[in-house]
Automatic annotation (TrEMBL):
Entry protein name: PAN2-PAN3 deadenylation complex catalytic subunit PAN2
EC number assigned by the record: 3.1.13.4
Gene for this chain: PAN2
Known role: Catalytic subunit of the poly(A)-nuclease (PAN) deadenylation complex, one of two cytoplasmic mRNA deadenylases involved in general and miRNA-mediated mRNA turnover. PAN specifically shortens poly(A) tails of RNA and the activity is stimulated by poly(A)-binding protein (PABP). PAN deadenylation is followed by rapid degradation of the shortened mRNA tails by the CCR4-NOT complex.
Lineage per the UniProt record: Eukaryota, Metazoa, Chordata, Craniata, Vertebrata
Reaction equation(s) it catalyzes: Exonucleolytic cleavage of poly(A) to 5'-AMP
Required cofactor(s): a divalent metal cation
GO cellular component: nucleus; P-body; PAN complex
Family, as annotated: Belongs to the peptidase C19 family. PAN2 subfamily.
Organism: Loxodonta africana
Entry binding sites for a divalent metal cation: 979, 981, 1088, 1140
Xref: SMART domains: EXOIII (SM00479)
Subunit structure: Forms a heterotrimer with an asymmetric homodimer of the regulatory subunit PAN3 to form the poly(A)-nuclease (PAN) deadenylation complex. Interacts with PAN3 isoform 1/Pan3L and isoform 3/Pan3S. Interacts with ZFP36. Forms a heterotrimer with an asymmetric homodimer of the regulatory subunit PAN3 to form the poly(A)-nuclease (PAN) deadenylation complex. Interacts with ZFP36.
Pfam families in UniProt: PAN2_N, RNase_T, UCH_1
Keywords for this protein: Cytoplasm, Exonuclease, Hydrolase, Metal-binding, mRNA processing, Nuclease, Nucleus, Repeat, WD repeat
Amino acid sequence: MNFEGLDPGLAEYAPAMHSALDPVLDAHLNPSLLQNVELDPEGVALEALPVQESVHIMEGVYSELHSVVAEVGVPVSVSHFDLHEEMLWVGSHGGHATSFFGPALERYSSFQVNGGDDIRQIQSMENGILFLTKNNLKYMARGGLIIFDYLLDESEDMHSLLLTDSSTLLVGGLQNHILEIDLNTVQETQKYAVETPGVTIMRQTNRFFFCGHTSGKVSLRDLRTFKVEHEFDAFTGSLSDFDVHGNLLASCGFSSRLTGLACDRFLKVYDLRMMRAITPLQEECRKGHKRMPVFSRAQWASSSLLGQCQFCEPTGLANPADIFHVNPVGPLLMTFDVSASKQALAFGDSEGCVHLWTDSPEPSFNPYSRETEFALPCLVDSLPPLDWSQDLLPLSLIPVPLTTDTLLSDWPAANSAPAPRRAPPVDAEILRTMKKVGFIGYAPNPRTRLRNQIPYRLKELDSEFDSFSQVTESPIGREEEPHLHMVSKKYRKVTIKYSKLGLEDFDFKHYNKTLFAGLEPHIPNAYCNCMIQVLYFLEPVRCLIQNHLCQKEFCLACELGFLFHMLDLSRGDPCQGSNFLRAFRTIPEASALGLILADSDEASGKGSLARLIQRWNRFILTQLHQDMQELEVPQAYRGAGGSFCSSGDSVIGQLFSCEMENCSLCRCGSETVRASSTLLFTLSYPEDKTGKNYDFAQVLKRSICLEQNTQAWCDNCEKYQPTIQTRNIRHLPDILVINCEVNSSKEADFWRMQAEFAFKMAIKKHGGEISKNKEFALADWKELGSPDGILICPSIEELKNVWLPFSIRMKMTKNKGLDVCNWTDGDELSSLGPSQWGPARAEEEHGVYVYDLMATVVHILDSRTGGSLVAHIKVGETYHQRKEGVTHQQWYLFNDFLIEPIDKHEAVQFDMNWKVPAILYYVKRNLNSRYNLNIKNPIEPNVLLAEASLARKQRKTHTTFIPLMLNEMPQVGDLVGLDAEFVTLNEEEAELRSDGTKSTIKPSQMSVARITCVRGQGPNEGIPFIDDYISTQEQVVDYLTQYSGIKPGDLDAKISSKHLTTLKSTYLKLRFLIDIGVKFVGHGLQKDFRVINLMVPKDQVLDTVYLFHMPRKRMISLRFLAWYFLDLKIQGETHDSIEDARTALQLYRKYLELSKNGTEPESFHKVLKGLYEKGRKMDWKVPEPEGQTSPKNAAVFSSVLAL
């Protein structure tokens, strides 16, 4: 609607049509409208508001019957009488639709149609209501359910719709075309071009389509071709509305004047028989713009913006008695509609009120309306309460109808027995006519059965059902004697028990008595903790990963290097890989491979963890290889195939890459050779059902030098042919990674059977005999030793369930072959001899490689916890030297934060009932001597210098910190005030026990949102040099604004005005400060560093929480300490990290002053006693400004300071 050129008195309302509407009632609103009404703060009233109880209506004369409020303060954009039921529909400028039933205007339904655009037209249909907004057509049931939602192009600006028949709709607007939409298929079927754009009104008769344009023209179009047959230039300015009745067309609108557009006081009338204008009709509406001329009893009804309404005869002037005035609540009247029965008029005003005028006390909207369906009330019979705790409670209290007939649920046993359909046999005609091409058979369809028939599968016939990876609900379903195969306690899934103090009172030392660091399991997708430990204890990987640093925001190699650095610094305290897993979740390939688990699936153990960790193993090696390549442009992930290009090889490629030749031999004799590389191998088990004995080395050789028959393209034959594909090894890797692929009962039975063969052969090897029913005592086994008296088999338990060798020997032959065999140190000594070459020389001169088992990752099947993943790792001498100061090797069990030394035989024993192998790591002997193991800190001082913000709106005027200059670089021992603010990503999961206490199942997942570092000395002491807001791509469920000061939008680069950076950028700054040796001063730094995922040495942390704390007493807040010692009122409405960091620095200075630099602990103890006494009196609350004065003025505090 164009408001330019109107009366100046109306200009004040024009901007409100397009800006946010203020939900405030007009000052002239009738006070009776506010009775029993609670105004919604959003500007939407949920109940209809009757203006008056009853109005006397004179028969035949239109008078106001009822007025209601649809939405307070939101203008009504369209009103429409339902053509099928006794209902009135109202649409608002806020996109909200409301319906009222009957002449009493009782609210029937109310729902949101569009979130931001106004409703421009409403059309009632038999099964629902059509709503048209700017670029959206929505068909909804009368109760509010969506039947279809048709989105138009964003460039469209629709204004009108016309229902040409029951299933076809025309939609027009300000563009130069009209769309035809099929309501049955909800598809656009035709697009009609319009010569004059701007079709805002459409009508239809049995002769023409009538289109009203914004330019003031009315075009008449053919019903079939939609071509223009005639055109009327009704107004020189703009068209307001028109209608057609019989052979007459009447219109109203605006005319152009020197001062702009002015409302035309004449209704232009045209005769459709002669196609020319006839005498116009003059209206008595003095001011405003006419709307909606509608025929009523051979009259036109028109209304103005200011509320005047009149009826005009088609052949003469209006009778003054036919003019009446509607009293709108707001300043303007926005909509007008006439019911099909012509007994009711509906007006909508600019304040959201709807006025119903009728000519009878009990009008009907339609001549023949159907009954309206109402929601049935909830009818609940009052039954006596039943106490189910009483055993003798008579169940007859529940009323049941008495019947002598058989109940429907009482089926005979023959009908209730399950009888699934068996799969029909393959048609004999198909087998007879089938032609085989390779392993695929082709046959014509005899068409004896319907297509797409899927038979039921019977469990008893499905012998190949992959049920091994499924954990049963009860151990009884898995074994005949489940108590013999219970999971050992150290292998069970470990969980952290949280208290109200969080993790502070949880005893991790009970689970880990070593100095190695475990990993916490409560983080999403922490199932890979065991594999992180395996990679960490590979010395070349640990060193090379920590030397890597790049500019990529989510680089797994960088994040893994940061995590390895934390594991190096830890002295037995657990670490968490939250930043690494955060980067892991952002990589699209990880999600595509199904490596991102939902919290519910991870907690319940859904999905095969063995398959998952093997896919993760392949993914992480490939991703690390790409992240560390020397090429500038990283290669795209190649998926699960395991092959990649060797150009620009990385250190990961040097360690894990195995160069191969893939040969493809066609039956025509053509051979194709292609070079490739792989980072790991997958075990391929023989298809042997006779129970043959295999060494692990035989299966491994079969898997590496894989030979298979498959269909492949032959360039010589120019078609797909059966080919023999073989794989030859050109160069063996330094670290041999093997995925076991024990994913079904078939592979598990193979491992179990081979372990039994190995057990028998081990006993025969040591001079003993074994029978099925004979048990041997421990003393008998001690006699089975070597000729020198060395005990080889101290226990029979060490030989059970062992098939995996500790060492394997590989030799490259001259004809590109590979020899693999199990290897022991005794075999090596006897074969080489004392005077011959050692292993290293043998490797160099004869291509002999000896690999030692370094780690095994196993899947623990436990029905009570859903299963878990653990790792057996052989920790080398360098790790023991750094952590414990000793040089020896030892096998350890890593089960998240549980770390325990184990016997080496335990690492290769796999009881397939609960302990299933998943991944094996073999390393070359003397691997560490082949690589440079020096770690050079890749973080340089320039990370502290000024950097650009990610936020587009951030300007220098908003900068809250001054970056360090080159002459201000921190030195060892310098003080830095630090504070961090956080947001919540996942809420805490807790349960209430039967005694009413709260038990935390899973803590809330926090993410750092702001980090501030303040200078602790120098002329600029107290001025921040880091104040970074951390951008996040994860969904934030709670910004904790009251405690963090972070508001929605502060972390969004598109709209934030803060200095926004990535977490990695700020993390590097803090890592540099830690590595340089500064001392951090703050309040509650332990939690800050934990969420930031930093490991800081204890001698570099000065936490005011503990400086001003007495043993076995409560912790004191920073706000109370600042008020008590510094006479400062901080954290009034919200927290500010700059203020908190600066206050912590001042408190530390105060601590040094009171304790005389720590030389007088007794005097400071008295100060703390006074602090706690004052806190108890004040209930640890800081008084209001008009309340109690600062304690510095109190006699108690002054006497304490005198000490």
